[in-house]
Write a structure and sequence with these properties.
6 domains; four-stranded mixed beta sheet; eight-stranded antiparallel beta sheet; single chain; elongated; binds zinc ion
């Protein structure tokens, strides 16, 4: 609010001053007009010179393009050898076929000149190119003669052989080494730096051979061949309904193999039109590297099994989760095409020991009831036995416990029902233990499971209460074999 006021005041003030300034400026305009007219007089006096200058600028700008083009030449090279200077690119490029024919006639060599790969034309402009007697501008005939001459010259080349098989010929040993290095880096997927040793399992030789410039090979095809083995990898395009498994089976390979050929592929997001490689790339080079590395390695944890009567045969329960250990390792790691084959450890520092997993393994036969197989389902006082009572049958046993006391499954099983019973049980849970054996828990205040819940012996299933026909808070517990209530005390 305050700021706004200050700004408004400033605006008012400046508006007033601008008006005042307007008057001052109006007065001063006269002086400016006088000055302007002096400039014009000066201009008028020298108008001839000015006109001349403008004309020169226009002429110069019009002439620059032709002059520039007049001064542009092209230095041409063939197979990396600079041969001379030509006036137009066409002097070389338009004559490729003619030169091929001419060279073939004169040297007897069937030449194929690849204009893109073999010929290089570099524009050179104006004063930077000194076309002297030694470097005259070549006409078509001169170009032909120079290439032909170069082609017929004997040249020492370096021939790369892999296990005795010729891969290509190149101008220098350095180029050969660079080709091998580039192939190695592509195979490993990393720059060849930081290694203690890098070598190949294959024997690579570089021998000097006498040849000519036409025998110089292009590096890229040789590098590619070293990397992918020189074979065309078969591919498959994903169509609707495909799974990696189906694709693998249809092509006589396993899903694991297919995945190993397509490590960048995520089976979860396999898309229509995805390209799947059906073969693995087998490089011609097997690169052996040794590298000193410090890294954390996971150590596996062990698992101990403990027999338990709480579970049925075939059931297991993890009691303690296993945790992998961490070990800091410094080692010289030797790999073949990236896969470790050997290591020499210099340091092994255990950061965290693995934690052994403990798994309980069930020994109980399902559907068998023996003394001691059931646990007392509640912490409470035994209050009423099984059997005839007040002239009628008491189908279970009672334990007194205040309302809300946890009720546990007497044995492992599956909850059959959680119901409000109208005939006197009140809230009742029935658990099936297999083999026709069931347990029932009545007069409950609440259920903590629902029908279908898989429960273990000792799991809480409810809270005790005083529902149904009950003379005070207690748990009524029954054991039924094929629907007939038996005395639970035989099995507790
Ligand atoms: Zn009872």
């Amino acid at each position: 609010m305050h700021t706004k006021k200050v700004i408004t005041d400033l605006y008012k003030k400046s508006f007033y001053e601008v008006r005042k300034l307007g008057l001052v400026t109006g007065k001063q305009l006269g002086v400016a007009q006088i000055q302007d007219s002096r400039v014009i007089q000066l201009l008028m006096k020298n108008r001839l010179w000015i006109a001349l200058f403008i004309c020169l600028v226009i002429i110069a700008s019009l002439a620059i393009d032709p002059i520039k083009s007049e001064l542009t030449y092209y230095e041409y090279s063939y197979k990396g050898k600079v041969l001379g200077v030509v006036k137009s690119q066409g002097a070389v490029l338009d004559e490729v076929e003619h030169i091929e024919k001419l060279v073939a006639e004169k040297t007897g060599v069937d030449v194929k000149i690849d204009a893109d790969a073999d010929i290089e034309l570099t524009p050179v402009f104006g004063p930077s190119v000194e076309i002297d007697a030694a470097k005259t501008v070549d006409d078509v005939t001169a170009v032909e003669e120079k290439i032909e001459e170069l082609a017929s010259q004997a040249l020492e080349l370096y021939e790369i052989k892999l296990n005795g098989e010729v891969l290509g010929q190149f101008e220098s040993e350095a180029i050969c080494d660079d080709i091998i290095k580039q192939a190695e880096e592509r195979i490993l997927g990393t720059p060849l730096t930081g290694y203690l040793e890098v070598g190949t399992e294959e024997v690579i030789t570089k021998e000097i051979v006498v040849a000519n410039v036409l025998d110089i090979d292009d590096a890229e095809p040789v590098i590619s061949k070293l990397v992918d083995g020189g074979i065309k990898i078969e591919e498959y395009t994903v169509v609707p309904g495909d799974t990696l498994y189906d694709i693998a089976i249809a092509h006589g390979i396993t899903e694991e193999e297919l995945l190993s050929y397509n490590q960048e592929l995520n089976p979860e997001t396999l898309q229509l039109g995805s390209i799947v490689k059906l073969q693995g790339i087998k490089p011609l080079l097997t690169i052996k590297t040794t590298e000193n590395k410090t890294f954390i390695e996971k150590t596996p944890y062990e698992t101990t099994y403990e027999d338990t009567e709480d579970l049925y045969v075939g059931e297991e329960k993890v009691v303690i989760e296993g945790i992998e250990g961490d070990v800091e390792i410094n080692a010289d790691i030797t790999t073949l095409n990236g896969a470790e084959i050997a290591r020499v450890e210099h340091l092994r520092n255990v950061i965290a020991e693995p934690v052994t997993a403990v798994v309980k393994k069930g020994t109980r036969e399902k559907g068998v009831l023996k003394p001691g197989y059931l646990i007392q389902p509640i912490n409470g006082g035994f209050s009423s036995p099984f059997g005839s009572r007040w002239g009628r049958m008491h189908k279970g046993v009672d334990f007194t416990a205040s309302v809300g006391t946890p009720v546990y499954a007497a044995d492992s099983g599956v909850v059959v029902s959680c119901e409000q019973d109208g005939s006197g049980y009140g809230n009742i849970i029935v658990v099936d233990h297999g083999g026709g054996i069931e347990t029932a828990y009545a007069h409950l205040s609440a259920f903590t499971v629902s029908p279908g819940t898989r429960v273990m012996r000792g799991d809480q299933i409810a809270s005790s209460g005083n529902t149904g026909r009950s003379t005070g808070p207690h748990l009524h517990f029954e054991v039924r074999i094929n629907g007939t209530a038996v005395n639970p005390m035989q099995y507790l």
